[in-house]
Amino acid sequence: MHAAKLLALAVDAARTAGFEVREEVLDGAGGGHCVVRGKKCLLLDITQSHHEQLSDVMDALRSEPQLNRANLHPMISASLQEPLSEAA
């Protein structure tokens, strides 16, 4: 599946999980997720590749222990099974 389509599916899943998704021009600084005043936020840097943005979305989804994976697209659900990479 094309990365842009997978990204769109993942963003939809994040919104369904309660994230406010913002797409901003951050000049390659990268995105991420956090909670601000009790609201889950996901910031995507649209100057990054679809793969980099997808990584940020998947990190956000992995942070959701209550996420109902049965309702996710099979490729999104399978990607969530992959272990998080650890920084060296």
What does this structure look like?
- The chain has one domain (about 5-70).
- Helix content is about 40%, strand content about 20%.
- The chain has a three-stranded mixed beta sheet with strand order 1-3-2, with helices on one face.
- The chain has helices at about 5-15, 50-60, 75-80, and strands spanning about 20-25, 30-35, 40-45.
- It has about 90 residues and is an alpha+beta fold.
- The model has no long low-confidence stretch (mean pLDDT about 90).
- β2 (about 30-35) and β3 form a beta hairpin.
- It starts with a helix and ends in an 8-residue tail after the last helix.
- The longest helix has 14 residues, at about 5-15.
Q: In terms of topology, how is this protein built?
A:
Elements: H1 3-16, E1 20-24, E2 32-36, E3 39-45, H2 50-62, H3 74-80
Parallel strand pairs: 1-3
Antiparallel strand pairs: 2-3
Helix pairs in contact: 1-2
What structural class do the secondary elements suggest? Answer: alpha+beta
The figure for the number of domains is 1
**How many whole angstroms does the radius of gyration measure?**
12 Å
Indicate the overall shape. globular
Order of helices and strands: HEEEHH
Which features does this protein show?
alpha+beta; 3 strands; 88 residues; globular; three-stranded mixed sheet
Short description:
With 88 residues, the protein is α+β, with helices and mostly antiparallel strands.
